[in-house]
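Open question from group meeting: does this chain pack into something compact, or does most of it stay loose? Before anyone orders reagents, we agreed to write out a predicted structure and look at it together. Recording both the input and the output here so the notebook holds the full record.
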Amino acid sequence: MGRCESCVELLFVRGAGNCQECGTPLRKSNFRVQLFEDPAVDKEVEIRKKVLKIYNKREDDFPSLREYNDFLEEVEEIVFNLTNNVDLENTKRKMETYQKENKEVIQKNKIKLTREQEELEEVLEAERQENEQRRLLIQKEGQMQQMLKRKNKQELLDKLLW
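Structure tokens returned:
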């Protein structure tokens, strides 16, 4: 059963409360706006984000394409298991083990991703500035054409009147 934001606010005035249907203790901080119509899709997207923060290796981290594909397959299996509540204990344990064993690589890739995001943001900002300059130039050219039209019109009127 879905809840609107005002209901959530009322239920969690103190930040925590019990579910009105099953009595499970809930915290307001765990609620988020549902992005997709289907809650299952929303759940999978959230789980995938969490898993990919840990399993953040890239193709160039592997000696072969086959090993990279095996890695991707493992990630998909973990996302599936967590989304569908399949073998949760082992899946969570597997993630914890992977996270401990690959701590340095995870951190390195996180830093690399941050750098790439910053570079992408710089490129996007440069593009925005270029587009703004282009827009201003087009606007200025339009104004100049309007002025030229008025001037030509006035000259034509002056010639006809003399």
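Observations to bring back to the group:
The first helix runs from residue 5 to 11.
The two ends are 82 Å apart (CA to CA).
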